[in-house]
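Now read these lines:
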Amino acid sequence: METSKTRSAFQTITSRELNGFRVRKRPCFADDSSQFSRIGAFDYGVEDDVTPPMALSFCKTSKNAHILAVTGEDGYVCLYNTRFKFSDSATRAENAEKARKCQWLAHDNAIFDVCWIKDDTNLLTACGDHSIKVWDSQERKCLLALTGHTGSVKSISAHPSNNDIIVSGSRDGSFALWDLRCAKSTRAHSNTLPIATVQGAHKSSSVKTRGRHNKAASMSVTSVLYMKDEVSIATAGAVDSVIKFWDTRSLKAPITQACSQDMSSRKWARSYGISSLSQDLNGVYISASCMDSRIYLFNVLQLEKGPVKSFEGSNIGTFFVKSKLSPDAGHIVGGSSDGFAYVWQVNKPQADPVKLEGHDGEVTAVDWCSHEVGKIATAADDSVVQLWNINSSCYSNTRSPSSIRRRERMLPVMKRRKLFTQEDEKDSIIGPDPDSPVELTVQTDSPNLTSIPEIRTPASLKKQLFSPHIKDACEGSPDASFGSPSSVLNPPPSIKRKTILDYFLAPSS
């Protein structure tokens, strides 16, 4: 007969409460893909013409977040409803027929990138015919054609708050800024020329490249990003692993740059280009897919330190293989040339990634759904688009690096009263110094600056709101002159916004 002591469930729980015992959480990532579930899969293509998809993008608003735009080599744009209940018994072609909402021929060439703008009412397509087109997603009508590049347009990105301003990168080695309000109507259609172009943005002759005959490196601009500070642009190219940052108000030279590889100590070094860039919702981190089969993570505020983390496990064999940082910067999903998609947890860069199986070709395009937490879309050369979902239990246990919050506490009542009393006595006794200069500064929000709440009385707050210098600053702001698009890139010096260069120390040259 066993003599071991037994305790009831109630006693066990009570002991844990008294002794402070905490149940150990299950880790987010397991050795297999059990934490991921496949929602469904469908073929991309029109009727029997199945072609490889090149790019995909979820809608940005919560109302339309389930709509997925997919483009391919055939020049078509297809919109799919990802909330459709995919049947396991149905074929991928049948799932595609039922989930497809609409389709239209956008270009006569391959579409390399797609981007939603203006609350998902318009769609941007970057094509191999050297043009960018703006589409009405409801009417499927071309509104504008942006012409000016002399090579295939590889990447496009819209201004975070003003979607009339976009940036594009091309195989001709340039990136260009566009203002959709500068359209010129013709008999055929409306077209727009770039308002600014930087040629040879990533042209380098000091680095030797891979190849048997040491051919000149491609100067293609493979990826562009409009930063969250609304005035800076990040670009990457095929020539090397350097990310350059530009100020849109002065595009003569990059304001700073970051490199994933340290090539200063080696006379001869291989050059690995970057296939794609992505940023989180807060704009704190940037991920870069490098052709050395690594994904590097950069902190925008500490670019001089280089990549803060790197992730391995995939095979980035071509520039068509992309990766994407999740909106909360908690995970990274990336394609691979071995036919799998991989997911890394940002907080555990040394851990093996989760392998998403199901494709039969090189996985190229990937995207996160911004409003349906954990939903992923992947596309491959097998002409199949697959939808995945991270289990809610796994996703909720993940601590996002960019989701740190700082609690502000209000001062006690007595301290507030004392503060007001001291301020009134100081003003009445000392008074303003007539000889001291009065300096007016316009402050901007900065991620790394500690904001101290300013306590004011209703009377002083009313005076501040109706201050004449604030009124003059508002009248001279770029948004006040809607008819002058160039004012967005060249605001008055008194109210110029800060760039990322003001948030960190630039590397010494």
